[in-house]
Amino acid sequence: MDTMRERFVSTMSRLLDEDPRLAVVLAVIGHESFREVERRHPHRVIDVGIREQLLVGAGGGIALTGMRPIVHTFASFLVERPFEQVKLDFGHQGVGGVLVSAGGSYDWPAGGFTHMSPGDVALLDTLDGWTVHVPGHPDEAEALLRLAAKGDDRVYVRLSAQTNVRALPVTGAGFLTVREGNHGAVVAVGPMLDNVLAATEGLDTTVLYAPTVRPFDGAALRRAVGDTGAAEAVIVEPYLAGTSTAAADEALADVPHRVLGLGVGRRELRKYGEMDEHLTAHGLDVRSLRARVSGFLTGVA
């Protein structure tokens, strides 16, 4: 199976052939993968060099001409470093575009903390009007990239080396019910689904799958937890723990409720390790999730 990033390259290469409105904007990273399509469309594959603020600013400028920029690099260089340009050159100017990140929270531990971005979605939450997709499989990534490329809005697609075994049908809106139960709900975001399903096996709780987290599907969460007693929800995200708890609280504001946000901790892990070791260190492995979910939800055993 190809990776999400490889699928990004193949999908965008085809879309550049199909849609003259699209342009891919890069900052060295990923340029080699687009060499072939660049020969066919030399003015629509743009490498600005290692200048991430310019990367996003150029994307905003391209959008002002009526084109649809697809801006790509590591999440830490796409959202964190040029955040002012994301805020002003897209949001303040009122133009749309697609930011496509790689690297996730800890996909390449050897790159160190400079190449990790567990706070990217939380940071985008400070801005208005961004749709955020977090696919859990390359097939889902392709579907969401195609959807994003066709639109005119502001979209962030968060690609990761972590994947689920199988893809689910994604539409770019709403959560999917993967398992039904009678005691609360666990929302698994993107590549967290397989571990959540394994961790909740045999527990009497509903599992929702969220490949799109913004807008947050509060209606689906509300239906899953029900209207009687104290509503309980656990949100398992592959980035900063608690990023979506405020959205869940808002969805459940008129009923007594408890929400537990699980994800990447704030403490910086200063050893490289491997990706699976980072998952375990943040309590996102199957064993840790089982203990944390069953310890929080009442009546699930």
From TrEMBL:
Q: CDD domains attached here?
A: TPP_PYR_DXS_TK_like
Transketolase-like pyrimidine-binding domain: which residues?
2-167
Official protein name in the record: Transketolase
Give the originating organism: Streptomyces niveus
Lineage at the top is: Bacteria, Bacillati, Actinomycetota, Actinomycetes, Kitasatosporales
